[in-house]
Amino acid sequence: SNIGSPVKFECEIEDTPNVTFKWFNDKFRILSRLTTSSLELLSPTKDDTGEYSCRASNKHGSDTCSANLNITGE
């Protein structure tokens, strides 16, 4: 993606009750109140380059999906 162009990640799971979502950037938790299935970076910079992961969990267990983001441009 280009610098400043919005980026959206979505964590898609089957319809399961009481699921909570946690988002990570390079294995560090993104500290926010974000507990939804999507994460949007409105104006990313090169510092936002890295691996993004979403962990979905409920009382039955958890699962994680990941995607890499590479920000290019000046």
Automatic annotation (TrEMBL):
InterPro entries: Cell_Adh-Cytoskel_Orgn, Ig-like_dom, Ig-like_dom_sf, Ig-like_fold, Ig_I-set, Ig_sub, Ig_sub2. Keywords: Disulfide bond, Immunoglobulin domain, Signal. Signal peptide: none annotated. Residues 1-70 form the Ig-like domain. It comes from the Eukaryota. One of its GO terms (biological process) is heart morphogenesis. Pfam families: I-set. The keyword Metal-binding does not apply. This is Ig-like domain-containing protein.
